[in-house]
């Protein structure tokens, strides 16, 4: 019996020398092995987004950067930030609005621009 198990194991190990392609379609309608096992990796886009935010935040003054960080990363309330910084909630609101506008403008520079519909050189559909 032990010899039979060894024989089965030896035969099965022979298949390891010729593995099926990940593009091989099985008899099932499940698709290929690559389609069943593969999935989109979201971690890469999160890292890229984090790097983009870090680069954009670098354009802000240190105090403004700290206020944005407290509000959007630490989720502090504007009143709490005002108490921490030593200014009013209204001033924090103004700083946040100005900082977010600066970040939007900075990030928009890197984004591809859509053609203007007012431009006569761009054909209309």
| Shape, per Cα inertia axes | elongated
Low-pLDDT ranges: 113-125
Tell how many strands the DSSP assignment holds: 0
Report how far the terminal alpha carbons are from each other: 77 Å
Q: Main sheet, how many strands, which sense, barrel? A: none
**Helical proportion, percent range:** 55-70%
Gyration radius, to the nearest Å? 29 Å
* Number of H/I helices: 6
Instruction: Give the mean pLDDT.
Output: 82
Structural class: mainly alpha
The helix/strand order is HHHHHH
Measured by DSSP, the beta-strand proportion falls in: under 5%
Topology:
Elements: H1 2-14, H2 33-37, H3 42-57, H4 62-73, H5 78-85, H6 89-110
Summary?
The chain is an all-alpha fold and 125 residues long.
Describe this structure in words.
The chain has helices at about 1-15, 35, 40-55, 60-75, 80-85, 90-110. The chain is mainly alpha-helical and about 120 residues long. Residues about 115-125 have low confidence and may be disordered.
Keyphrases for this structure?
single chain; 125 residues; mainly alpha; 0% strand
């Amino acid at each position: 019996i032990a010899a039979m198990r060894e024989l089965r194991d030896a035969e099965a190990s022979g298949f390891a020398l010729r593995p099926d392609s990940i593009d091989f379609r099985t008899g099932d309608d499940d698709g290929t092995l690559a389609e069943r096992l593969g999935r989109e990796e979201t971690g890469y886009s999160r890292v890229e987004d984090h790097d983009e935010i870090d680069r954009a935040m670098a354009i802000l003054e240190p105090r403004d950067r700290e206020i944005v960080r407290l509000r959007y990363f630490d989720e502090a309330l504007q009143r709490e930030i005002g108490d921490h910084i030593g200014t009013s909630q209204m001033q924090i609101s103004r700083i946040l609005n100005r900082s977010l506008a600066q970040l939007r403008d900075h990030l928009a520079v890197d984004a591809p621009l859509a053609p203007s519909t007012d431009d006569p050189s761009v054909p209309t559909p």
